[in-house]
Specification:
two-stranded parallel sheet, mainly alpha, 204 residues
Length: 204
């Protein structure tokens, strides 16, 4: 007797790739493999094929509808409570970052740097190449008059433009001496603070 054939259609390429990946031994993938092996021992031939999602395929559309109905049903219990290893790994990576962010947000130090990068993601996503001058801008530890006066290395902190204390923020955003560079940078790169911090710092 020829074996019976069952074809399982899915619109999830991720599921198909996971089943075909011999290195993937996640719980759900292994359970599916066991079920397929059990059916094959009973002379079933199991095939898995991909179909395009939301393309009017009757079975696929019905599966989507039933899944949505089950998700909205308050009386539906948890059918699967195991946590995938990938989720655990992700949580293990994220927890130190969350802890660092909490400490960074509440710290009484590094206020100058925090105004540029209030979140760790801001720094991770930025493409600023750190140099000694950029670091001086971001930390507020550049050789400005305000900084030097703080350590009694300068008698006054007024900027040479004569308007305000010579801080990094003043040089970058208000100082008349850097207005030309500031305008030139804005016309070339836009007016975001991160861009201004990277470009105008070269005048100091």
């Amino acid at each position: 007797m020829s074996p019976l054939t069952a074809i399982i259609y899915t619109d999830s390429r991720v599921s198909l790739d996971s089943l075909r990946n011999a290195k993937n031994h996640s719980f759900l993938v292994e359970e599916i493999r066991k079920q397929v092996a059990s059916l094959e021992r009973r002379e079933w031939r199991i095939k898995v094929s991909w179909v395009k999602a939301h393309a009017g395929t009757l079975g696929s559309e019905m599966a989507d509808r039933l899944a949505k109905e089950a998700a909205r049903c308050e009386g539906t219990g948890n059918m699967f409570t195991r946590i995938p290893k990938s989720t655990l790994y992700q949580e293990a990576r994220e927890e130190p970052r969350h802890k660092w962010q909490r400490e960074w947000t509440t710290s009484q130090k590094a206020s100058a740097t925090r105004q540029y990068f209030p979140r760790d993601q801001d720094r991770l996503r930025s493409k600023i190449k750190l140099t000694p001058k950029i670091s001086a801008v971001l930390t507020g530890h550049g050789m400005t008059k305000a900084y030097l006066q703080r350590f009694h290395l300068s008698e006054e902190a007024t900027c040479t433009c004569g308007n305000e204390y010579q801080t990094m923020d003043h040089i970058l955003f208000q100082c008349a001496n850097t207005s030309t560079q500031r305008e030139d940078l804005a016309s070339k790169q836009g007016t975001s603070h991160n861009q201004a911090q990277e470009g105008v710092s070269c005048v100091h």
